[in-house]
Automatic annotation (TrEMBL):
Protein name (record): Helix-turn-helix transcriptional regulator
Cited InterPro entries: ArsR-like_HTH (IPR011991), HTH_ArsR_DNA-bd_dom (IPR001845), HTH_MetalResp_TranReg (IPR051081), WH-like_DNA-bd_sf (IPR036388), WH_DNA-bd_sf (IPR036390)
Gene3D superfamilies assigned to the protein according to its UniProt record, in alphabetical order: Winged helix-like DNA-binding domain superfamily/Winged helix DNA-binding domain
PANTHER family (UniProt xref): TRANSCRIPTIONAL REGULATOR, ARSR FAMILY, TRANSCRIPTIONAL REPRESSOR SDPR
SUPFAM superfamilies assigned: Winged helix' DNA-binding domain
Domain HTH arsR-type: 3-97
Alphabetical keyword list: DNA-binding, Transcription, Transcription regulation
Key word Transcription present: yes
């Protein structure tokens, strides 16, 4: 397989990991510190099994790693820069039209919340 085809295929798979909003939220929650499933469940407002399923996808693509402490499992980003990369990606959501004012406000609020962690 030519090198460009291989790289673009792998990049498409990598970007596809972020195709679900909850996986992006998990990365955001892990931005500043490691968290266990219960903390992620509370932050995301979804079931324990839902959090575990999304973590499984992130683990399988080597985006998060785990650390066990007794019965608790803590997760952290393997490459914390991925959270900054996602925040930078919010620039592509901005539009110049007046109809996008609500989206721009949401982006600004999200950036502030993420930066505060």
């Amino acid at each position: 397989m030519p090198h460009r085809a291989l790289v673009t295929k792998e990049l498409a798979v990598f970007v596809g990991v972020f195709a679900h909003p909850l996986r992006i939220r998990i990365v955001e929650e892990l931005r500043a510190e490691e968290r266990d499933v219960n903390a992620l469940q509370a932050a995301l407002g979804i079931s324990h099994s839902g959090v575990s399923q999304h973590l499984m996808v992130l683990r399988s693509h080597r985006l998060v790693s785990e650390r066990r402490e007794g019965r608790r499992v803590f997760y952290r980003l393997r490459q914390p820069d991925i959270a900054a990369w996602l925040m930078d990606a919010t620039r592509f959501l901005e539009h110049e039209s007046a109809e996008a004012a609500e989206l721009r406000k949401a982006i600004d609020e999200t950036r502030k919340a993420w930066a505060a962690k």
